[in-house]
Sequence to fold (223 residues):
Amino acid sequence: PRRSKVRFVSEQMNLHLDVQFAKHYFREGVWENELEGIASGTPGASQFLKFSDANFDPVHFFNARRREIKLSGRREPNKLALGYDAYIALTEHPDILERVKYTGSTANPAVVTKQVLAQILQIEEIAVLESTYNIAEPGQPDDMQFICDSTGALLCYATPTPAIDEPSAGYTFTWDMLGNGNWMATDQFEGEGGTHTEFIEGLMSTDMRKTADDLACYMKNCV
Fold:
C-alpha cells in the first residue's frame, strides 16, 4: 500500500508539471512568434494551411520555420512539441506517407513514428503531448481532456547544456531542497495516535519561465 500511494503521488506531481508546461509554454499568447492554421485559401503572413490539409507542405513549412529561428535567435531549433491531434494529422499526411511508403517490408512495415517524422522534418526530437486529466468537478461525470492543446505545436531550441549564460527558449528553475539534485520528493508521517492513519505528501520546488522569445514559434489550430 505504501508503494502504491507513493506511485500515485509521483504521478500527480508529474501531472502538475504537465499542467505548468501547458500554462507557461504551450498556448496562444505566450510566444511573440505565433502562427495560426486556416482551413482553406491562401495563408497570410501569420497563417498556414492546417496539417490536415492535403495541400499543406510539412517539409517546406518546417524548413522555413527552422530558418527563421536560426536567423533571429542564432540557434537551430531542436525540439518540436506536438499536440496529440496535430501529431496524428502529420503522420497521416499524404506528403509524409509518400516519403516512407517504399521503405517497409512484410516483416517491418513502413510506419510513421516520432523518430521517422523527426528525420523527415530534420528536427532532433519530437515530443507528443498526450497527457490527459479529468476536468470535471467532484461528483460529476468524468470529462477527460488533453492537458496541452491537442491542435497546437511548438518548435523551439532547448539547450542540452543548461547554464546561466546559455540561451534557451525556456527554462525550468528548481530548488534543490534535498541537497542531492532531487527537486521532487515524497514524505510520510503518521496521523493521530490510535487512528492507524498514515499520510504521504509530495513536495516539489520548481517554476517554468520563457527566457528567449526569438528561439520558438508556436502554431495554433494546426488541425
Residues 2-24 form the longest helix (23 residues). The longest strand covers residues 184-190. The chain has a mean pLDDT of 95. The chain has five helices and twelve strands.
